[in-house]
Amino acid sequence: MRAEVTEAAETTAVEVVDLASTPLRELNQRLHDLAGGADGPRRWRILNPNGAHAVACGIDAEIEIEIQGHVGYYCAGMNKLATVRVHGNAGPGLAENITSGTVMVDGNASQSAGATGRGGLLVVHGDAAARCGISMKGVDIVVRGSVGHLSGFIAQTGRLVVCGDAGEALGDSIYEARIYVRGAVSELGADCVEKELRDEHRAELADLLLQAGIDDLDPSDFRRYGSARRLYNFHVDNAY
Amino acid sequence: MCGIVGLFAKSTEVEGRLGEHLSAMLAQMSDRGPDSAGVAVYREPAPSGACKLTLFSDDPLQDWDALAADLRNAFGGAPEPGVRASHAVFVVDAEAFDAEAWIRSAYPELRVMSAGQTIEIYKETGRPEEFIRQFSLGDFHGTHALGHTRMATESRVTTAGSHPFSTGLDVCLVHNGSLSNHNRLREELRREGIEFQTENDTEVAAGYLAWRLREGASLEQALDGCLDDLDGFYTFLVGTADGFAVLRDPIACKPAVLAETDEWVAMASEWRAIAVLPGAADATAWEPAPGVVYAWERQKV
What we know:
heterodimer, A: alpha/beta, Pectate Lyase C-like, eleven-stranded mixed β-sheet, 11 strands, elongated, B: alpha+beta, Alpha-Beta Plaits, seven-stranded antiparallel β-sheet, five-stranded antiparallel β-sheet, 9 helices, about 30% strand, globular
């Protein structure tokens, strides 16, 4: 199956959709129609997104999509199997609830990037704003720049890699996700603590950076953060 | 929800097409605020010693020429009404304070939407697209402008409850968000002599800025004060005679995008409102950081 798809991708021309002339719903419907391995183009290029919401949202197909320009809310939300690359900036809720596949943004992402993601990989080559990886449940997120406040809030599983700095309340009320930060952390959130960076973590980091196409950083320069596990059980001193 | 837009011209080309660009931006934000719309346009300064008032009447048969005659008798000069839908702009040969006081006593049924040298405010209930058409928004030229599309949460859908809110001479505010301590703050500001015309939360923020500016604060200091004294969610866009400023609350739930080219500076709730501007694809675009004041001002000659 996989070999067939690759062969098809090589032989099929790129399907170009210009959102200046094609309604967004028509595009998304065509992408949804590819679910379950249905026949259709495997490589897509989307022009003139002009900040539209929910571009390439809800895909369930092993296809490649290049988006030329800035997108609005919820781009590549609920992504499954697809590789989506945005050549521009992304609005709030990028790749929200991503299940698998890869979402990459060349520019910056607004708040809640990768929120509640269950799997797959999200790469932001610029900065991500507040609440990056909020409530992540298995997605891996690599941010080449910095992240805003409350990133990794109640993060349950998955890895959040920040090559720049992190804003206030990083990893507040975190469960078992792992956070790696190369730059400065303004402030750790409740129950988030720095932990030892061991060899297995360096190996994990090297793999994530490689997947993100980042080859000029040394995993040893990162610090690891995770849960102190003091909020797992009810404690009267934590109640208001 | 609500949508905010702002455009600051850096070239005469953009100044000449300010209304056209503002209309395109506002229409993009229609989905975010379908119940009312409004703009503040900074244009054609009144001569020194004179002032400019924007008045609103809910009477479709309002006799603006009669008002012009009364203004001429009271203050001299030759004020001509610039009528757009339910609003009319007058340049009056008087200080703004005196002209406004005269309107309030002689025409208490009218509402003063704005007063100052350059500001004009127009706002109305209904779909933003309809507002743009009714007020011939595309005609405007000017140096900078702010706009708002409203989805009401804190008070009724009325013309008076629409944005922008004027906060003193040539100053106005548009707001995306909701304030939770506006009732108590309104009472405190009333004791300081600030007047309020509605139960709207944004009017309280506008009154707060007016009070701080009156007490000698700079615009930047007044906005910094919002971080301590206002409780709630907000992205603010504040217009002055010389430019505009942007502030987001520290939690920053409400969106904001800034973009700049050699021709203009633009602010909007979303990129799609900026994408309609010429050269947008090559603009420098970024999200303003929470709790930080961003300001642009025209160079004073």
